[in-house]
């Protein structure tokens, strides 16, 4: 699934094709999946931004200046296999036509979504509305993250909820937890553990964005940029997709387990599951004997 690095790369690559252009038509045959897209017709795209895994096209009236506040947004979620292309293909689901030409949204597995909404009106998108801070922004503060991690459940599902930090999905959760030497099922992180994880998330995300994201395999649903170019961060994966291969840090074979219905990769030697301190549990809620 495209995560923050892939969506950010997509934004950077297609913004020059779309910024300043007028949307003439958005054609598709799935109004439940691509909602209220006709509201974008005739609007100018003043710019593109990203929030977590969501791509946001800012829409203004055609006569408005590009620096005026936008009043509508076209929200795009790439789903598991969605991406933009310059040419129509077998899995094209949406054709975006501007006064400069066509851009095609391909999505083999049909999990991608679009919606045109008033700017900032995310009530119908609970994940977007409740999303945590951007991992590479100043709003992502270590002290806040450490405080929240102290009372969290299993750390990987907590990260995937998007509430402690935005844009971290399956790939980059596994990679960040490996760098921080934390087991994916660990609960109630200590301050040193949470601090290591905070720094690992920032490092992994910065490196993945610089590498253009991760492209896995050669299937039609594999992440590609709009011109067919691949990302390169998969060459830096330490654990994700490397089941049975040797940990690059200690040489132990990488293991895979299912955690909250997600395939999860880790090194059992570098990332041992810390046994919870009984005294901590008693302090929180007393003995359950």
How would you summarize the topology of this molecule?
Blueprint: H1 4-18, E1 23-27, E2 34-35, E3 44-51, E4 54-60, E5 72-77, E6 83-85, E7 92-98, E8 101-106, E9 113-118, H2 126-129, H3 142-149, H4 155-160, H5 170-180, H6 191-210, E10 255-259, E11 262-266, H7 278-285
Parallel strand pairs: 2-9
Antiparallel strand pairs: 1-7, 3-4, 4-5, 5-9, 6-8, 7-8, 10-11
What does this structure look like?
This protein folds into two domains: 4-129, MutM-like, N-terminal (N-terminal domain of MutM-like DNA repair proteins), CATH 3.20.190; 142-279, Helicase, Ruva Protein, domain 3, CATH 1.10.8.50. 25% of the residues lie in helices and 21% in strands. It has helices spanning 4-18, 126-129, 142-149, 155-160, 170-180, 191-210, 278-285; strands at residues 23-27, 34-35, 44-51, 54-60, 72-77, 83-85, 92-98, 101-106, 113-118, 255-259, 262-266. The protein has a five-stranded mixed beta sheet. A four-stranded antiparallel beta sheet has the order 1-7-8-6, covered by helices on one side. A hairpin with a 2-residue loop joins strand 10 and strand 11. Helix 1 runs parallel beside helix 6 (191-210) and helix 3 packs across helix 6 (191-210).
Distance between the termini: 43 Å
Shape: globular
Domain module count:
2
| Approximate strand percentage | 15-25%
What's the β-strand tally?
11
CATH architecture of the largest domain: Orthogonal Bundle
Give the strand order of the largest sheet, numbering strands 1, 2, ... along the chain.
2-9-5-4-3
pLDDT < 50 runs, ≥5 residues: 278-289
The tally of helices reads 7
Mean pLDDT, rounded to whole units?
Answer: 93
Task: State the order of secondary-structure elements, H for helix, E for strand.
Answer: HEEEEEEEEEHHHHHEEH
Largest sheet: 5 strands, mixed
As for the CATH topology of the largest domain, it is Helicase, Ruva Protein, domain 3
Give the class from helix and strand content and strand pairing: alpha+beta
Report helical residue fraction.
Answer: 10-25%
CATH class division of the largest domain: Mainly Alpha
Cα radius of gyration in angstroms: 21 Å
């Amino acid at each position: 699934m495209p995560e923050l690095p892939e969506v950010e790369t997509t934004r950077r690559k297609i913004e020059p094709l779309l910024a300043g252009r007028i949307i003439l038509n958005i054609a598709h045959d799935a109004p439940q999946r691509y909602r209220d897209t006709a509201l974008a017709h005739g609007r100018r795209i003043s710019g593109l931004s990203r929030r977590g895994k969501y791509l946001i096209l800012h829409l203004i009236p055609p006569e408005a200046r590009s620096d005026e506040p936008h009043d509508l947004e076209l929200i795009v979620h790439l789903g598991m296999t969605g991406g933009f292309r310059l040419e129509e293909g077998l899995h094209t689901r949406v054709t975006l036509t501007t006064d400069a030409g066509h851009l095609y949204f391909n999505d083999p597995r049909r999990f991608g979504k679009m919606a045109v909404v008033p700017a900032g009106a995310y009530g119908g998108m609970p994940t977007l509305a409740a999303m945590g801070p951007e991992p590479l922004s100043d709003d992502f503060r270590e002290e806040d993250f450490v405080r929240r991690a102290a009372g969290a459940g299993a750390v990987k599902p907590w990260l995937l909820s998007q509430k402690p930090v935005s844009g971290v999905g399956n790939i980059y959760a596994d990679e960040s937890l490996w760098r921080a030497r934390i087991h994916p099922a660990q609960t109630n992180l200590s301050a040193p553990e949470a601090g290591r994880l905070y720094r690992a998330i920032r490092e992994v995300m910065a490196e993945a964005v610089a590498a253009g994201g991760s492209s896995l395999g050669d299937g039609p649903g594999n992440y590609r940029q709009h011109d067919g170019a691949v990302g390169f961060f998969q060459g830096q994966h330490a654990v994700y997709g490397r089941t049975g291969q040797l940990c690059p840090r200690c040489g132990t074979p990488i293991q895979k387990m299912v955690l909250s219905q997600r395939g999860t990769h880790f090194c059992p030697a570098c990332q041992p599951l810390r046994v919870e301190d009984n005294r901590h549990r008693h302090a929180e809620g007393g003995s359950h004997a």
